[in-house]
């Protein structure tokens, strides 16, 4: 299984949805809460300037946010990426 990292904030509904989708698939992930400005800046740099949460990384691939991951799942591309 690929390493999954998800940048979140505690009150973000899209973050909760992303974590639920990963949990439904039985995927372990590392959650990085970006309430600390330094962590948000690190996320923004890693996510090519995107400042919104969640930002999801699977292996070396920046998937994007929840909508991006859900669309990838609907297209059948999420499971192969997770299986890397």
TrEMBL record:
Annotated CDD domains: GRX_GRXb_1_3_like
SUPFAM superfamilies xrefs: Thioredoxin-like (SSF52833)
PROSITE patterns noted in UniProt: GLUTAREDOXIN_1 (PS00195), GLUTAREDOXIN_2 (PS51354)
Record domain Glutaredoxin: where: 4-63
Short name of one Pfam family: Glutaredoxin
Keywords: Cytoplasm, Disulfide bond, Electron transport, Redox-active center, Transport
Cellular component terms per the entry's GO annotation: cytoplasm
One term of GO molecular function: glutathione disulfide oxidoreductase activity
Gene3D superfamilies: Glutaredoxin (3.40.30.10)
GO biological process: cell redox homeostasis; cellular response to oxidative stress
Family stated for the protein in its record: Belongs to the glutaredoxin family.
Function field: Has a glutathione-disulfide oxidoreductase activity in the presence of NADPH and glutathione reductase. Reduces low molecular weight disulfides and proteins.
NCBIfam families reported for this sequence: GRX_bact
Name recorded for this polypeptide: Glutaredoxin
UniProt organism field: Devosia equisanguinis
């Amino acid at each position: 299984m690929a390493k999954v990292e998800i940048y979140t904030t505690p009150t973000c509904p899209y973050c909760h949805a992303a974590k639920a989708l990963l949990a439904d698939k039985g995927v372990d992930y590392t959650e990085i809460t970006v309430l600390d400005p330094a962590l948000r800046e690190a996320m923004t740099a890693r996510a090519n300037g995107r400042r919104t949460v969640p930002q999801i990384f699977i292996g070396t691939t920046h998937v994007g946010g929840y909508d991006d991951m859900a669309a990838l799942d609907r297209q059948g591309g999420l499971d192969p990426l997770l299986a890397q």
